[in-house]
Predict the 3D structure of the following.
Amino acid sequence: MLAYIVRRTAYGVLVVLGVLFFLFALFFLVTKPDDIARKAIGDKAMPAVIAQWKKNHGYDRPLWPGPGHVQDNMLVEHYRRMLTFDFGRSDADDTIILDRIKKGAGPSISLTLPEFAFGVLLGIGFSLFVAFFRETYIDRSTVVLSVLGMSVSALLYIIGGQYLIGKLLRWFPISGFDPSWAVRARFLALPIVVGVAASLGSSVRFYRTVFIEEIYKDYVRTARAKGAGEVRIMTRHVLQNAMIPILTSIVTEIPFLLMGSLLLEASFGIPGLGSLTVDAITGNDFATLRTMVYIGSLFFVVGQILTDISYTIADPRIRLD
Amino acid sequence: MFGAALALSALVSCTNNPYPETDDGRRVLYTSFSEAPKSLDPAVAYDTAAHEITGQVHDTLLEYHYLQRPYSLIPGLATRVPKGEAQTDGSVLYSFELRAGALFQDDPCFELGGAGRRTREVSAEDVAFELMRIADPVVNSPVIDPFSNLSGFAEFSARLSQLMKRDPGFKRLPARERYRRALPLPGVRVVDATHLELSLKSPYPQILYWFAMPFTTPVPWEAVEFYNGQNGHPHLADHPVASGPFLLSQYDKQSRMVLDRNPNWYGAKHPEWRAPGATYPSEGEPKDVADGRLAAAGKALPLLDRVDFRREKEAIPAFTKFLEGYYDTSGIIRESFDKMVKDERLSPEMQALGMRLDKSVIAAIYYIGFNMDDAVVGSKAGERSKKLRQAMSLAVDVREYTRLFMNRRGVPAESVLPPGIFGYEAEYENPYRHVDLGRAKALLTEAGLDNGIDPKTNKPLHLTFDTPDTSPDGRLRYQFFVNAWRQLGIDVEIAATNYNKFQEKVHDGAYQIFLWGWVADYPDAENFLFLLTSDMARTKNNGPNTANFSDPEFDRLFLAMKARENDPERLEIIRKMRSIIEDQCPWIELYHPEDYALLHSWVHNVKSAGLSVPTLKYQDLDPTVRREKRAEWNKPVVWPAYALGVLLALVIVPGVMTFFRERQ
């Protein structure tokens, strides 16, 4: 297994290096250092001030390596900073990026973790329930509702949730965040409900398919023939054997919980890492954006490896070579 | 989903109140911000979002009178507004006297000046230090130009650059030491702790306005040294140390900024001084009496205990919270404009809620400019192009434009100067800023462009409208003007590019028509009219005169106007400059934008400034009325949760029962 992990890690390194290259190339294809400077110090700034800003932030160097500047160029500096985890300061406001990441991780996790946990538990719970009542109107109507739910844009869930639950019913604040836990729960309730609702359709449909496939396997029939109860069959046998595809979808997501949710955080005003990334995109903040993309790609690689390892735990027959 | 919602709802006691209940009875003004300030360093901060904070925490030597219009300066941290004293060598001297005994807010940085110190008195040295910071290339202040008129300022800045180039270690020295080595700076003289003299190379009365902005606030050297982003200390850009009426007690760019009263402020320490900047004014415009803004006359400032800024990235949730009573003031979002405003007045529905609408014209102008260096629309083509520009101006219906795109939130502009600025005359009518297609066509005929046909090509005259706005909304706006000119037979093509490409075009002079705007730094005609002087030409001098307008008489009048105080002669000069612009038509003046602010019944003393100036110390609110209204407007509706529960049971239970019956 160690050899497998080493090999996957080496592939992962290549993926991360490629992501960093494409990020750099695409960003500077559409944005020039002058744009970054203007966003940071304002349109009214005189050209000399912009030039000084670029010099102070290292954007006065050539983009690509070339004769006379093989080392001293922005691409090499980009790789140097990322590979040494020297994220530096934000282009938009000069704050230390690592500090902002540390600060944003808490709000992100307090949103994504319960959303993820509720989503998985409700998804599995509902799916077991409808699989249990398969081929009844409960099953069929749940499938129809799930497909409908999958078809609706996440934005509509957000706007609908804010309008219905926040504005009309006045159960929770429509948006915002507060660091104190007593008030924070109020703010997080609505985005969690919306996030869970938005993901429930696809997860119920997926898990239900997995469970139903298991239900018709021979070992279930054997268990039933031996007199095992339906509830025991579902929870002990079917659930356990359906864990591999479920784990695939769950474990990959776990590292990304820290990265926050772009849409939910931006829409509900939660100051997490998703929000930070959206700000970096809209603010031409290359330094922050590359850090977030870099961390995201690292998490992706880690997620893939963790998923593979989790197979061996869920099913001892699987060996990673 | 609703089950989870219900459980969570029960868990958090089901309320949409976004604030801790403990704040209910306090004079806490709740407001929102969408963009976090980029920097709170007063030498650098130049955006409105930053001034919203720096303006409240940094005291300035001078301030604007809160209620009077046109804008007038009053003493702030200075004891009086100084007058420029002309010197025999042509220079002008300004003497500032600072209030003795004014203190900075408590801060650990002052321990650098002695163990256990938490604050110290504000000194003239701190103002001089801040002026040196503006000159410092390391600070990279965007307002270095206006201070270049201070004797020796540019030389001081150049010496700092040279010393840095010569010795790489120089940059790492404490700012105070670097400045000491780069002296002299003869234009800035600290006479003693409370007296500062400024010497300008030539008359520039507008320099006083810069002392009503946070750029020139006193900054303690201790704060610059301590808050350097090292040893776990934040950067000065995130931690202001100041002497104003409020202090920044909480600063999280992503979610929240909180201003609390500064107990060290001279107004709080010495209310007996009755200083103009620390006492609510007792004079204002007649409208202020009618609107009840003089009820607080004579009260010691600030009136609020706290100002709580919450971040709202999306406009609709922020506006919803305002309607729920959780924000005290708000702008009006486009989606709800028709519900809020009827016939340019607050709708009866909103009036019934006790709301008020506060309108103010922003000291700004938006205009269509012609590149005067261009061979077709520019001055090189002489009378022909002048008549073309005049004709094009006569085709643009700005009232229709503001109706279609801005909910009429704009005052049609007749000249460069907006209302509230000395030189603006409400009765003035620009003969080329009213729609008159007949006269426009006649002018085109006189220009040899009969029905818009270019005799060289025998086709409609083809021009390009260069814009950095590629959005669909922007396209519609630009198309409005193109359609207007099409009525004259002129074919104008929209050349939309990204901002950078547009800047390149402007730099190379490869543009014909553009749309631009200018928001004033300070309320003086000079801050608008300089936009059309030759020295400020964009293509030649990289200045903000994007029209590249150049007229020797206009330039001469500008210099005469710039050096004068507001008097009848200055007004006469401004009129002459206006008539040159009217005749030459380098701009089609469009509108001065208007700000519509909604206020709840419990908010008092709000008067929009139209400029980026601090006003929070004058504002007040009644927390008791607010608490009652919030409770009345925000009762949770819980019956749908129960109804949903019953509905779910009705659907599921028969299914479950049938299932088990069949299995048995």
Remarks:
- Residues 114 and 192 of chain A are 7 Å apart (CA to CA).
- The longest helix of chain A spans residues 97-132.
- Chain A touches chain B through 73 residues (CB under 8 Å).
- DSSP finds 14 helices and no strands in chain A.
